[in-house]
Design goal:
The chain has helices spanning 2-7, 14-30, 34-52, 56-61, 67-104, 108-115, 120-123, 125-134, 136-153, 158-174, 186-198, 203-207. The chain is an all-alpha fold.
Length: 208
Amino acid sequence: SIYFLMLSDYFKNTVYSILFGIFFGLGMITKIMFPVSIIGPLMFYLYLTFIHKDNLIKKLILNKGSVGIRNAIIKKFINLGISVLLGILPFLFLFLPRIKRMLFGITNEFLEERIFNFGFKEIFFYIIRLVDSQIFLVFSAIFIIAFIFLIKTKPKNYKFLIFWILIPVIILTLGDRTIRHSIPILPAVAIASSNFIVGINNRKLKRI
């Protein structure tokens, strides 16, 4: 779904927008926590598409630009709407009863235990688990250095990786702190680490 999101060219391409919606829907059906795994890249693309890149929302509201520009903006909104419908409707059809049970099951005890219970372990839960349960110490050290390197050097599309990693971690930290739910961010961790390793100029260090 992330692949087709990127190919949609900021929702300019209708075919890839539809494919993104289809695979987004399949992901929603497969795993109820799937939205958390894609929310970072999706938020980044929505920000670039409608706010940062050309400030399309402002142009549409203020009726600025040519008819062609306004039509292009409307087309992006339509493609986004199609993607959202394709992604959400199958999920709602299949899981609406379960969603109702989940919402009614949110009690004060649950909120106190999960949402408002914060200490050092809760705040750094996923960083700790990254080290001791997921990619372990050596690769975690490489990733932490790589993440700092990523922010400092600002390579192309670095913000995309930051959104992909941080947004899900923040959401999961505030909510259901379960290790398996953070698995979808591991490809972004691998990409950031690989980018750092490839960028090392010292041959001996790179071989290590």
